[in-house]
């Protein structure tokens, strides 16, 4: 059984991320005020990331077990499905109804690994994609420094004169 985070709002945030909600949506669902920066920062927390991975892994295993149990209850296995798809493709092609024939062939091809539906993106070593947050002031200072050859350290805060 997965172990919940001790902070209940962090746990809820992790659960919502694991369900596929955006960081911002999960942050709000966990009871935090709307703030994209805080949502992003919380999502980078190692304990949150580990918990999301744990929840997703447990969910995937439960789904796999449920699918396996349903298939066994119906006496359906991979070979049976593949044989039916082949039959359907041939029947549809013989009647010149190529839509269902193509669909059956597509499903066969996917099962054989000929097509990829999903591309997963991750950062170094399978971790999260790293993002960098820069304030508008830092961005402007950086651009000014490039233009003037200055380090931007002398830019005063507040209104220009």
Q: In sequence order, what are the helices and strands, one letter per element?
A: HHHHHHH
Structural class from helices and strands? mainly alpha
- Major sheet description: none
As residue ranges, the low-confidence spans are none
Amount of helix: 55-70%
Percent strand equals: under 5%
Average pLDDT: 81
Principal-axes shape call: elongated
Distance between the termini: 62 Å
The total beta strand count reads 0
Number of helices: 7
Rg from alpha-carbon coordinates: 26 Å
Detailed description of the structure:
With about 160 residues, the chain is an all-alpha fold. The protein has seven helices and no strands. Helix 1 packs across helix 4 and helix 2 crosses helix 3. The protein is elongated and about 75 Å long. The N and C termini lie far apart (about 60 Å). The mean pLDDT is about 80.
SSE topology:
Blueprint lengths: L7 H11 L4 H7 L6 H8 L2 H28 L4 H17 L3 H14 L24 H13 L13
Helix pairs in contact: 1-2, 1-4, 2-3, 5-6
Descriptive labels:
mainly alpha; 161 residues; 61% helix
Write a compact overview of the structure shown.
The chain has 161 residues and is mostly helical. The protein contains seven helices and no strands.
């Amino acid at each position: 059984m997965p172990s919940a985070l001790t902070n209940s709002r962090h746990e809820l945030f992790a659960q919502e991320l694991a369900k596929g909600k955006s960081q911002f949506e999960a942050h709000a669902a966990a009871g935090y005020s709307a703030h994209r920066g805080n949502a992003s920062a919380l999502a980078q927390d190692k304990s949150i990331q580990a918990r999301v991975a744990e929840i997703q892994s447990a969910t995937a295993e439960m789904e796999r077990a449920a699918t396996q149990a349903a298939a066994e209850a119906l006496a359906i296995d991979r070979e049976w499905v593949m044989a039916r798809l082949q039959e359907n493709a041939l029947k549809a092609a013989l009647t010149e109804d190529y839509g269902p024939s193509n669909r059956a062939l597509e499903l066969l091809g996917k099962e054989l690994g000929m097509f990829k539906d999903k591309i997963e993106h991750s950062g170094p070593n399978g971790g999260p994609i790293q993002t960098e947050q820069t304030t508008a002031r830092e961005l402007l200072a950086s651009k000014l420094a490039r233009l003037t050859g200055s380090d931007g350290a002398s830019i005063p805060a507040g209104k220009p004169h």
